[in-house]
Amino acid sequence: MWAAPAGGSDSDGPAIALGTSFNDELAEAGVPVTYTIQAIDAYGNISPVSDTVTATRPAPGESPTPTGLTGTLRDSATALTWNFSTDAHYGYRVYRRTGTNDAWTRISADKVTATLYDDTTAPVGRASYYVVVLDQYGNESAPEGVVTVTRETPVTSTAPLPPTITLAAPYTECTANDCVAHGGSSTPLTVTLPPASDRLIWGYEYKFTGDAGYTRTTDSTVMWTPPASGSYTFTVRTVDYYGGRRGAATTIQFKVG
Predict the structure, then answer these.
(1) Omega into 170 within 30° of 0, i.e. cis?
(2) How far apart are CA 232 and CA 254, in angstroms?
(3) Measuring CA to CA, which residue among 70, 12, 3, 1 is closest to residue 33?
(4) Which of 16, 160, 240, 254 minimizes the number of CB atoms within 10 Å of its CB?
(5) Selection from 158, 183, 188 nearest residue 171 by Cα
(6) What DSSP string describes 130-141?
(7) Residue ranges of E strands in 152-220
(8) Residue 88's Cα: distance from chain center in Å?
(9) Which of 103, 104, 92 has its CA nearest to residue 132?
(10) 137-161 pLDDT per residue, tens
(11) What is the full DSSP assignment across 9-29?
């Protein structure tokens, strides 16, 4: 990739782009720059020079740079927040790129009026973001410092599926026609929770009859000793990967001898 002031030459030589896009962070605002490209194959052979294209990086508006940009990973989005700007009467714009050499893409609407934005199309892996303030003429301020986050799972709009439950012998789940007592207060109960079938998860929340609230665990096996004979219920729900969303619960009944 050759970049030179219009009518001039590229004094520091070509830049290497490994993808199909290039972000020229050295381009000066208000200065027309002419770009040409040559492709290189696996054997080092170089193609003819492409047609030229000239672009001018716009000068930033007079609005102050926004501050305090943060990114928080959630299961339903990558949540971005920043500090309110007293000059942001005309809104903000949010930009994202996923590769170090990729071009920045505006992902927000033409303008965002709040100081937060949920990226509901955030990809798995690394993504970088910045925010600018718009002035009354639509000019963008200089960008806020870039924030970079890395997602382990894709954004999903739905909660995880209800978990399945397996009771280890001698205990069995009650059915509509059969609820026989097994084991006893001296016989521990082992519950196995198979891995979620639709996504990566953080773990589970569960409770037995008599528990004041749910207990969280990342294990797929729960051991519990019944306090006495009688009928009990076990309720469990899946906790999504980033911990803020829970799926529908599964409940079973069993009887202790």
Answers:
(1) yes
(2) 6
(3) 3
(4) 16
(5) 183
(6) EEEEB-TTSPBP
(7) 166-167, 189-192, 201-208, 215-217
(8) 27
(9) 92
(10) 888 888 878 999 999 999 999 999 9
(11) --TT-PPP-SSS----TTPPB
Which amino acid is residue 14, in one-letter code? P
DSSP state of 227: S
Beta-sheet pairing, 201-208 with 125-133: unpaired
For 159, 163, 235, 244, the CA distances from 198, given in Å and listed in that order, are: 10, 11, 20, 17
Q: Give the whole-angstrom CA distance, residue 128 versus residue 92.
A: 17
Structure tokens at 154: 């894709």
- Residue 151, classified by CB atoms within 10 Å of its CB into exposed (0-12), middle (13-18) or buried (19+), is buried
Contact 73, 147 (CB under 8 A): no
Q: What are the DSSP E strand ranges found in the chain? A: 2-5, 32-36, 53-56, 70-73, 78-81, 92-97, 105-106, 116-119, 125-133, 147-151, 166-167, 189-192, 201-208, 215-217, 221-224, 230-240, 250-256
Q: What is the pLDDT of residue 100?
A: 84
SS3 55: strand
Q: Which two tokens stand for residue 53?
A: 């294209």
- Render pLDDT for 170-228 as a digit per residue (tens, 0 to 9): 999 999 888 999 999 889 999 999 887 788 999 999 999 999 999 999 999 999 999 99
Place of tokens 């040559």: 38
**pTM of the prediction?**
0.72
